[in-house]
Specification:
By secondary structure, the chain is an all-alpha fold. The chain is elongated. The protein has one domain: Methane Monooxygenase Hydroxylase, Chain G, domain 1. The relative contact order is 0.10.
Length: 274
């Protein structure tokens, strides 16, 4: 070391400054590579979080479409004529897009070593369940019908014939129709039970004739309507509709957990970089 210091060139201030600078270069490179790595990881996490937010926005839009369909979309005659309705079809289209986006999101997480696979897997599972339930909901509403369409329309045909042409007393048929309407408005099982009790009593008193056949058809048609209504779970806690709404609430909760995890990882990267 003493010999090196005795070298005339190294005794100059510029030489010692250059030597100090060269010894500092490895530290600068290490810091630079570390910064680039952390910055790249932060960027990946920010992009990941942005994609999750985009999916959540799509999910909220689809939930609004579903609500519109369940409130008034199924009233539209065009739905029963074509099998298409813009609100429910938009809901299903967005749900299909969301399922594809979630699968892509999982691949991005794997490629960028973002350890967030389990929350995304849960979102994927909920998305698939929502899409399946949404298709079932549309089919059931289509079968159930509204006013002159579907099962409700078929039931009305029998009811109107009995009112206008049968030998059944008007007071009896009006009582029967009151139970029918109470069930359709409120969806409560006791009104369906009152209907069946009344119609069975009427059938026992009628001879084998056209009126009896039409009344039996009216009962059978109402039975199908009750079954579709119960399967939908309208005004109830069990059925396709409440299950679908539960899936949407669970997706919201899972989204919040997934987004919080991504943000937490970003904050960790920021802390490391500081």
């Amino acid at each position: 070391m003493v010999r090196l210091l005795n070298i005339p060139y190294l005794n100059s201030f510029k030489a010692r400054l250059l030597l100090s600078f060269l010894s500092f270069i490895p530290l600068v490179l290490i810091w630079l590579f570390t910064y680039l790595y952390i910055n790249n990881e932060q960027r990946d996490l920010r992009l990941f979080s942005a994609r999750v937010t985009k999916i959540q926005i799509q999910y909220l839009q689809s939930a609004a479409n579903l609500q519109q369909f369940m409130l008034w979309g199924y009233h539209q005659p065009q739905f029963y004529k074509t099998g298409k309705q813009q609100d429910i079809d938009r809901f299903l289209s967005l749900q299909s897009t969301i399922s594809n986006d979630l699968a892509e999101l999982k691949n991005i997480a794997i490629q960028n070593n973002i350890n967030i696979g389990q929350p995304v897997d849960r979102l994927i599972a909920l998305g698939r369940q929502t899409l399946i339930a949404g298709n079932a909901l549309k089919q059931l509403y289509y079968k159930k019908g509204f006013e002159d369409y579907g099962q409700e329309g078929e039931m009305r045909v029998y009811a109107h014939w009995i009112e206008n042409y049968s030998s059944i007393p008007k007071s009896n048929i009006l009582q029967l129709r009151r139970h029918e309407k109470d069930f359709m408005l409120r969806g409560r099982a006791e009104y369906a039970q009152l209907y069946f009790h009344t119609v069975d009593s009427m059938l026992r008193q009628l001879p084998e004739n056209k009126s009896r056949l039409e009344l039996q058809s009216y009962k059978d048609s109402f039975s199908k309507l009750v079954r579709y209504t119960e399967e939908l779970g309208i005004n109830n806690n069990i059925g396709i509709a409440p299950a679908l709404l539960l899936n949407i609430r669970q997706f919201d909760k899972q989204y919040a957990l997934t987004d919080a995890t991504a943000i937490r990882k970003c904050m960790t990267c920021n802390y490391v970089s500081i």
